[in-house]
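Table S2 (continued). Query chain:
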Amino acid sequence: MDKPLHPRPHLFASSTFPPPETLASMPTTTPPLAAPSLSGELLEEIFLRFLPNEPSFLVRASLASKLSFGLLTSPNFQSRYREFHGALPMLGFFCNQIDTSDSEEEEEEPVSHFVPATTSDSC
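Corresponding output:
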């Protein structure tokens, strides 16, 4: 076992790499800075521009951070949103139906389901 384990043990021993003791004394680079955070006022202005016919955008935005949740659920934002967009559209309504397909005499509980306003189906 006179052979070295590595056929070229000095592969990285070249003039392009500094010796290990020099590497230890070199200053380390600072980590990259985090992205700047947006102020609450700027976020509120952005959220105001979300269209009222796409409420899922506001729901997703409220789940992004505690700050955005607080902004979107505040009474101040809600009143500004209504003022900015006017009357909000009706998304749908709940309809109670009783299933009368069974001919049993016992009284059945009504079943509630959501009917979106964009469809032409009714109760």
